[in-house]
Automatic annotation (TrEMBL):
Keywords: Chemotaxis, Cytoplasm, Hydrolase, Phosphoprotein. It comes from Bradyrhizobium ivorense. InterPro entries: CheB-like, CheB_C, CheY-like_superfamily, Sig_transdc_resp-reg_Me-estase, Sig_transdc_resp-reg_receiver. The active site is at S206, H234, D330. Residues 195-388 form the CheB-type methylesterase domain. It is an enzyme of class 3 (hydrolase). It comes from the Bacteria. Residues 20-138 form the Response regulatory domain. HAMAP family: CheB_chemtxs (MF_00099). Phosphorylated by CheA. Phosphorylation of the N-terminal regulatory domain activates the methylesterase activity. This is Protein-glutamate methylesterase/protein-glutamine glutaminase. The keyword Ribosomal protein does not apply. It is found in: Cytoplasm. NCBIfam families: PRK00742.1.
């Protein structure tokens, strides 16, 4: 039987201010654990705890959640089958896919992103392992907190909660007409593109990144053919294996998880493997991959900053870097170092980012030569790598 749960209102947040979360998982232990975590947060509440995807589809309109945490493997109707039915009933529903860390579930989670899921999160193999459970809790709460307001702001006839700083606000990707009353554009400081011709393309991304990366690599074939492309996407092991395969199919160029010590060559896409930082080092006349099993940086592993900063020792100012959609500020400090060395940074704009955290941090730091919609980044890269420095 399905049980709906509603948490008590916090004195610091009214009922309508809270992000409404629906938890859908066939494990009563997982449902209870997630519900307790969410119930302890002042800005969110569990409005339903359900056992199957069929329960979620049937009760969605009555519950009217902002966010659904949706398990993949469930009886009656699994998560990947429930996903399109949920979005058909509530187009702005934020869906976070949750699954144990297997190759099959990683493949399904990435497929779910292409079907409209907002994000994914790997569940720990055992909730008894304190470190794994705490990482799961932290990541899940952060994803709900950053993605939930996107749906909450579209909720009619509710009080408007205070907005977070713009670089933390999640945005739906723009696909249709502009808003009826667009806000005046904020003028951000721009730097000129570096004077040296770029010899490498470095890309960093997080939330919303897999979709953005697919769109980008599909349009920069001429760049990949002549220069190496290195990507750090915040993603766990197994998921990066699947993402590399998708990048290879989409770009029609070789793409793989980077291997420690391998020589970096033009015509290849190198993806930081989940759970390892990807740095660049010099070995004789060659640039090589140097994987790092050190602690998380910016709460991430892999992180973008070590890739950006280490590249300077190899290519100095001949670096073109791109920061795509994602939570947090990873990539901003490394981007500052790249610019100081004479290289360039392009950031994805706020309107086309799922979360304008990482690119927003770079843009607001004044280190970007351009802040562009996603569909304009690839053409700009093709021009820059062909000699256009304007």
């Amino acid at each position: 039987m399905s049980v709906a749960l509603t948490s008590a209102a916090s004195p610091t947040s009214t009922h309508t201010d809270k992000v409404r979360v629906m938890v859908v998982d066939d494990s009563v232990v997982i449902r209870g654990m997630i519900s307790r975590w969410i119930g302890a947060e002042p800005d969110m509440e569990v409005v339903a705890s359900l056992r199957t995807g069929l329960d979620a589809v049937n009760q969605l309109e009555r519950i009217n959640p902002d966010v659904a945490v949706l398990d993949i493997e469930m009886p009656d109707l699994d998560g990947i089958s429930a996903l399109p039915q949920l979005l058909a009933k509530k187009r702005d529903l934020v869906i976070i896919m949750a699954s144990t860390l297997t190759r099959r579930n990683a493949e399904i989670s990435i497929k779910a992103l292409s079907l409209g899921a907002s994000d994914y999160i790997p569940k720990p193999e055992s909730t008894r392992e304190a470190t794994a459970a705490e990482t799961f809790r932290h990541d899940l709460i952060q994803k709900i907190r950053h993605l939930g307001p996107r749906a909450r702001r579209s909720r009619p006839h509710t009080a408007s909660p205070p907005l977070a700083p713009s670089h933390d606000r999640p945005r739906a990707v723009v696909t249709g007409a502009a808003p009826a009353t667009p806000a005046a554009p904020v003028q951000l400081a721009r730097r000129p593109f570096g004077l040296l011709p770029p010899k490498v393309l470095l890309v960093g991304s997080s939330t919303g990144g897999p979709q953005a990366l697919m769109a980008l690599v599909a349009e920069i074939g001429s760049v990949i053919d002549r220069f190496p492309v290195l990507i750090t996407q915040h993603m766990p092991p197994t998921f990066t294996t699947i993402l590399a395969e998708h990048l290879a199919r989409t770009s029609k160029r070789p793409a793989h998880e980077a291997v420690d010590g391998e020589t970096i060559k033009a015509g290849q896409i190198y993806l930081a493997p989940g759970g390892r930082h990807m740095r660049i080092a010099r070995h004789g006349i060659d640039a090589v991959i140097a994987l790092d099993d050190g602690p998380p940086i910016n709460f991430c592993k892999p992180a973008v900053d070590p890739m950006f900063t280490s590249a300077i020792d190899v290519w100095q100012g001949s670096i073109m870097s791109v920061i795509l959609t994602g939570m947090g500020s990873d990539g901003m400090r490394g981007g500052k170092d790249i610019v100081a060395a004479g290289g360039s940074v392009i950031a994805q704009d706020e309107a086309t980012s799922v979360v304008w955290g990482m690119p927003g941090a770079a843009a607001n730091a004044g280190i970007c030569a351009a802040v562009l919609p996603l569909n304009q980044i690839a053409p700009k890269l093709v021009r820059v790598f062909s000699g256009d420095r304007s």
